[in-house]
# Entry
Amino acid sequence: MLRDKSLIPLSHQHQRALALCVRIDRAQPIPEKDFAAWQTEIEQLFEQEIEIHFAAEENTVFPAARSFPKLIPLVKDLLSDHASLRTSFSQVQTGAVSSESLSALAQQLSAHIRKEERQLFEGLQELMKPEDLARLGKQLITALKDATHACALPNEATRLKAGK
# Structure
């Protein structure tokens, strides 16, 4: 199903986060000397986009989804994902990470995004009236206004290498 234009801002952010997940996965095992660069990039993405993205979903999208009994268990699951992901991002900020934990973060974030795209967004598009989706889209624009909208370029240590 094509993504409704009201949800596209979130989907664009999902694409950027998935790109990070792919780079983390392909960089494995991450050399110890590159950890600081990865840590900086992940912290920056969390602060400039993901944290704002989570708040927009929790304050705008999830309440709309809860009005449909079919989506309530999914929203509970997604909220649990957010809590777990916040803990993982916090560990990155404190430096309590390893190559394996970065890989686990990438897998967890990727699975969460796919769940939102394939289950939540599809469900909302199926169940919501077009005018309600449009209203949700306007609320999202306001909720996401402080997020960085530019694609951050990886630094030398976090850039995909040829052959990876």
User: Anything to note?
Assistant: Residues 8-143 form one domain. The radius of gyration is 16 Å.
